[in-house]
Amino acid sequence: MLAGEQCIQPRGNLHMISVEEALDRILAEIQPLNVVQAPLPEVQGLVLAQDIVAQEDIPPFANSAMDGFALQSKDSKPHNGKLPRLRITGSIAAGYVAEHAVEEGTTMRIMTGAPVPPGADSVIQVELTSTESSDSPWVEIQQEVAPGNNIRPAGEDMRRGQKVLTRGQTIGPWEIGILATLGYATVPVVRRPRVAILGTGDEVIDIHEPLQPGKIRNSNSYLLEAAVRAAGAEAHRLGVARDTVESLREKFTEAVQYDLILTSGGVSVGDFDLVKDIMQEQGKMNFWRINMRPGKPVAFGQIKGIPLLGLPGNPVSSAVTFELFGRPVIRKMSGHAQLLKPQIDVTVENGVQEKAMRRHYVRAHVVWHNGHFIARTTGNQGSHIMTSLLNANALVIVPEGGVTIAPGAQAKAMMLDWPEV
Amino acid sequence: MLAGEQCIQPRGNLHMISVEEALDRILAEIQPLNVVQAPLPEVQGLVLAQDIVAQEDIPPFANSAMDGFALQSKDSKPHNGKLPRLRITGSIAAGYVAEHAVEEGTTMRIMTGAPVPPGADSVIQVELTSTESSDSPWVEIQQEVAPGNNIRPAGEDMRRGQKVLTRGQTIGPWEIGILATLGYATVPVVRRPRVAILGTGDEVIDIHEPLQPGKIRNSNSYLLEAAVRAAGAEAHRLGVARDTVESLREKFTEAVQYDLILTSGGVSVGDFDLVKDIMQEQGKMNFWRINMRPGKPVAFGQIKGIPLLGLPGNPVSSAVTFELFGRPVIRKMSGHAQLLKPQIDVTVENGVQEKAMRRHYVRAHVVWHNGHFIARTTGNQGSHIMTSLLNANALVIVPEGGVTIAPGAQAKAMMLDWPEV
User: Fold this and answer.
1) Is the CB of B385 less than 8 angstroms away from the CB of A156?
2) The domain B10-34+191-333: what is its CATH number?
3) Nearest-CA distance B86 → chain A (Å)
4) Measured between beta carbons, which residues in chain B are less than 8 angstroms from residue A226?
5) Which end of chain A is more exposed for a tag (fewer CB within 10 A), N or C?
6) What's the confidence (pLDDT) of residue B355?
7) Is there a contact between A4 and B139 if contact means CB atoms under 8 Å apart?
8) Is A37-54+162-190 a domain of CATH 3.40.47.10?
9) Which pLDDT score, from 0 to 100, does residue B308 have?
């Protein structure tokens, strides 16, 4: 090796690993966080940490599916060719219980959702009855009804003792509805991860500052904050570390109070790429180069036991590698079983002409059209071309080894706006 | 009409309108909310209210794509069969500018992202150079480079004056990255809707309370709160109105301080279904019956100018009609152009045997399998069967008129977990 190379050559593992190996090695180090008891509105999007068993029948009581009259079904039979007339002995609104039973020859008005009174075995809807006036004590039954007619039995939806929700399920609006129905005001869930986001580099200034020569704004921290939130975690921007060991050490002292540290920049081969050094000083580096484009320099390891994912400084690399590695980490920490975006076959309308030796994740917009998924790539795919992210909802995957995709040819695409599988 | 029917018959419009007409009539009354200036992290998911024009070139200056040496490309030519040796006059880190120019026969070390020094027209990556030691003042150039080599020109991503984001775009993590890059710390967005959620009915108790005879827990308000949040709006539960005109009036006095009122229950034909009465007293009712299942009794109108969507009391009806009508309302208020979930062709593996005269939205789980979308329905489709919502990510649409779908036949399905189109 030449001396001149040594002075800015990488320290540590030179090996460039595959995307799959990187993902395996990352996820092997990540475990779901601890379980906490949390109230209903806050558990949205979190993972249920125990099976939920119905403690009651749902519906809790047999109730009417219609507005109508509760009766004994045998009383609905015509008698000697005449429609039966039943005496109305009361009225039951939803939320109230009958004060007496329905006896032979009698009936009670009943509203949808109201408990079926004792003695009654069916409900006839009001449209199939006739009364002479609103205060008439008699109602004519115009159609024969079978036992159980318009009655929703207790326990028809959920039976007491039945497992209704399963540990590991994601709690969405509908699961919240079921938990509320069963009276679970709080439930045990895997805690929401708290993620520290750290920019690095003397060139990075805050977004509120005017540009100065040689400087660029801290777009990555804001992008990653939003992406972390979209992945279901709390995001905490810790600002930008300078390119000194001292500045990085100070920032990492703060960062290790979180569940995951995301950095951007500082993981390449330059003299000032110190994130790897600190990782080796205070923790352990697992790997730092992946055979992919954009985003070869992705470092993974831990500092004081806290996993650290070092993303590249180029904004597109940072955005894409977060989707590929950061999001699955957050999902695994959150207890999700489905970690990865689905890959589907697409027709790449405009093709991918550019050869890349590394696996190439090409930003693309995929639509479903005439029974096919059609992908259109989003222009200049340079890792500093943020506009290539605009309108992209997928990454077309071009295999390693300088492969191109002819216009109209098939390829795999990862659907970024579909749920994980 | 018989007198007995009148006493619990509907007041107002008897007409049952189609889902499409209902949606048209609802959306015709909804306008995007006002525009506010909001800071970057908070605009996630909101709609941009003006075009964003780059005020600077991005990158703001020509910079190096590699760690290496900045030079005049003509100096990289071998001379008399010998590799050129250039004198190293300095080093430029990212974030700093060169203090002098690169002159003929000289070079400067340069890091990725650092500004290209004056005089240099190319960068050679360090791997193609050789130095005798780390402090040697000379470097051997081992490959000829062309002008522009490894240089990212200023403005290659975005040009000053270029429109980069368009009014009406949804701001996701990547758009936030672009706004940060351009120094937009705040941007004008359509305000996030604030939605009041009101349960109704004497039978409804809070989720913290033990069940009493005839009572059910307030699952709808919690379900809707989560669904409203998932649709990108703020949700405010206002509790449960009793089945009295006074109680409803009181709740509506509070509710009209929000942008949209969602009620559940109280819009059917019963004596105690008073939401429609109050709507007619204090505002206007547009319609209240839709030819669909679940969820025929959906009322729409306004109270004191605030749109009110009255959803049915049955939890499944409430959940499904929110997806069909409530979510598009929130999206239109939020300024989105894409309001509706995509409908795709699916193979209904287990079919739909149950005949319904109304349009039937059948809860189903859809997966992409062997080049087809396969739907499997989720069991008992009764509007009180909440467990039919579990695992459903789609609604299979069965046309009006008592149509069935044979096992393995095709149908349209609305994909609830895909983005709107």
Assistant:
1) yes
2) 3.40.980.10
3) 13
4) 41, 44, 172-173, 176-177
5) N
6) 85
7) yes
8) no
9) 96
Fold for B37-55+167-190, please state it: Molybdopterin biosynthesis moea protein, domain 2 (3.90.105)
Pairing of strands A85-92, A138-141: antiparallel
State both tokens at B370: 């062997």
pLDDT for A270: 59
Residue A102 confidence (pLDDT): 98
The A residues from 366 to 395 touching B (CB cutoff 8 Å) are 368, 371, 380, 382, 384-387, 389-390, 392-393
Q: Is the pLDDT of residue A371 over 90?
A: no
The Cα A9–Cα A205 span in angstroms is 27
- Which residues in chain B have their CB less than 8 angstroms from residue A212's CB? none
CB-count burial class (<10 Å; 0-12, 13-18, 19+) for A107: buried
Is pLDDT above 80 for A12? no
* CATH class of segment(s) A343-415: mainly beta
Nearest partner of B377 among B399, B403, B408, judged by Cα: B408
**Amino acid present at B113:** G
Pairs from A159-163 (Cβ < 8 Å, separation ≥ 24)? A159/A54, A159/A57, A160/A54, A160/A55, A160/A56, A160/A57, A161/A53, A161/A54, A162/A53, A162/A54, A163/A51, A163/A52, A163/A53
B13 pLDDT above the threshold of 70: no
Over residues A35-45, mean pLDDT: 96
Q: Do A201 and B94 touch (CB under 8 A)?
A: yes
> Least CA distance to A388: which residue of chain B?
B157
User: Which residues in chain A touch residue B418, judged by CB atoms under 8 angstroms apart?
Assistant: 417-418
Q: Which two tokens stand for residue A180?
A: 């509320």
**Position B374, amino acid:** I
Q: Give me the pLDDT at residue A274, please.
A: 82
Question: CB distance from A327 to chain B under 8 Å?
Answer: no
**Separation in Å, CA of A173 to nearest CA in chain B:** 5
Query: Helix axis angle, A219-230 relative to B173-181, nearest 10°?
Result: 170
* CB spacing of B345 vs A158 below 8 angstroms: no
Of the candidates A347, A350, A362, A418, which has an alpha carbon nearest to the alpha carbon of residue A392?
A: A362
User: Which CATH topology does A3-34+191-333 take?
Assistant: Molybdenum Cofactor Biosythetic Enzyme; Chain A (3.40.980)
Among A179-193, A273-287, B161-175, B238-252, where is mean pLDDT lowest?
A: A273-287
- Note whether B220 contacts A: Cβ–Cβ < 8 A: yes
pLDDT band at residue B268 using 50, 70 and 90 as cut-offs: low
Q: What's the average model confidence in pLDDT over B34-51?
A: 97
Task: Select the more confidently predicted residue: A174 or B10.
Answer: A174
Taking only residues 128 to 147 of chain A, the set having a beta carbon closer than 8 angstroms to any beta carbon of chain B reads: 129-134, 136, 139
Contact assessment for residue B395 and residue B292, using Cβ atoms and an 8 Å cutoff: no
pLDDT in tens, B192-221: 999 999 999 999 999 998 899 999 999 999
Per-residue confidence band for B310, with pLDDT thresholds at 50, 70 and 90: very high
Q: Considering CB atoms only, which of B5, B95, B203 is closest to A201? A: B95
Chain B residues 165-194 within an 8 A CB cutoff of chain A: 165, 172-185
ipTM of the complex: 0.92
Asked if B268 lies within 8 A of A112 by C-beta distance, the reply is yes
Give the pLDDT of residue A7.
Answer: 35
In this prediction, residue A280 carries a pLDDT of 86
Which chain A residues are within 8 Å of B67, Cβ to Cβ? 8, 268-270
Domain A63-152 class in CATH: mainly beta
